[in-house]
Write a structure and sequence with these properties.
alpha+beta, Cyclophilin, 2 domains, seven-stranded mixed beta barrel, 30% strand
Length: 325
């Protein structure tokens, strides 16, 4: 078991969500930073899509009921086991009864705790992830975790103890694309209605230093900056939405659709952020700055390959660690 001792209002059970059900009105959901969750699971010998705990804001404290491997990824935060600090992006052996604490983010936003065996809440529509908006998945009709909850752990695919004869192992966090001032760069393919904005508006979109607004949540991130408007008012039929779509509502400030986004919408699409950059986006806190970079389809494919190469490296690191035992 995994006993919840302390949790903030946004601590939830998450996996990689429910792709393929948008036609039935079900949003993808799942981890905001899916890459961080994948890496955490790989570090504890689990399938990349296993369920873990996503948290942000207040500290998360859990007591583990059996010996297990754990890993915390995502935001830079203070992580400890019985008060002893451990690094993020590192596999660590914990014994039955020990307490794991994940502190508030010092840099970034979302943190992920993975445990060998994975968290076995009931599967709903093919996933264990919590959909706070829809009220399903996770535990008790899709609510956040709170003190007193107990989560069942599955059987670990590997024996954790021998892996730590040499002191554990870890990997570097995935690289983030930034400008010279350290602001996150998001790579974007122009959208269907991009041509409905004149050259001045297009240049403003690419040149603006956008700020993440305090209206941001798991459904989407709002941006603050100079307003954008199409050449003429548009009356669009609703179309399917995916995480990463950048819409321009009538107010003129972009909204980026994310994990719990609606499945359809009708605002003009300025573009779509490529999937590898969504993890970087969601780790930028409210008030943080972003720049947009136009790329081609071929460049997007190359970026996806770079992410796959990074995940393959994490998998090989685990395999190498198993050979040491």
């Amino acid at each position: 078991m995994l006993d919840i001792l302390a949790a903030g209002p946004f601590a939830t059970v998450q996996d990689l969500g429910r792709p393929g059900l948008r036609g039935q009105g079900v949003s993808v959901g799942g981890a905001m930073d899916s890459l961080a969750l994948r890496v955490a699971n790989l570090l504890v010998g689990e399938d990349p899509g296993a369920a873990g705990i996503e948290t942000t804001g207040l500290p998360l404290r859990v007591r583990v009921g059996r010996a297990a491997l754990i890993a915390v990824t995502g935001a830079v935060s203070r992580v400890s086991v019985d008060g002893v600090a451990i690094p993020t992006y590192t596999s660590c052996l914990v014994e039955a009864g020990q307490v794991i604490e994940v502190g508030p983010a010092q840099q970034g936003t979302w943190s992920y705790l993975a445990v060998s065996g994975g968290i076995e809440v009931p599967s709903v529509l093919g996933a264990r992830s919590t959909d706070l908006k829809g009220g399903y998945g996770g535990i008790e009709n899709g609510r956040a975790l709170r003190p007193g909850d107990s989560l069942t752990l599955g059987a670990s695919p590997i024996d954790p103890a021998p892996l730590h004869k040499r002191g554990g192992f870890g990997v570097l966090p995935p690289p983030r694309l930034t400008d010279p001032e350290g602001h996150t760069i998001l790579r974007i393919i122009p959208g269907r209605e991009y041509g409905e904005f004149d050259e001045t508006q297009q240049a403003r979109f690419w040149g603006e230093l956008w700020t993440i607004s305090n209206s941001s949540n798991r459904q989407g991130y709002g941006l603050q900056g100079r307003k954008l408007s199409p050449k003429t008012p548009l009356n669009l039929a609703s179309y399917g939405l995916i995480p990463g779509v950048v819409q321009i509502p009538p107010a003129g400030e972009p909204v980026i659709q994310l994990a719990e986004a609606n499945t359809c919408g009708g605002y003009p699409r300025m573009g779509t952020i490529i999937a590898p950059d969504l993890s970087a986006l969601v780790q930028v806190a409210v008030g943080g700055k972003l720049r947009m970079q136009r790329i081609t389809r071929d460049e997007a494919i190359a970026a996806r390959q770079a992410t796959q190469t990074y995940l393959a490296h994490v998998t090989e690191t685990l395999r190498s660690a198993l050979k040491w035992t």
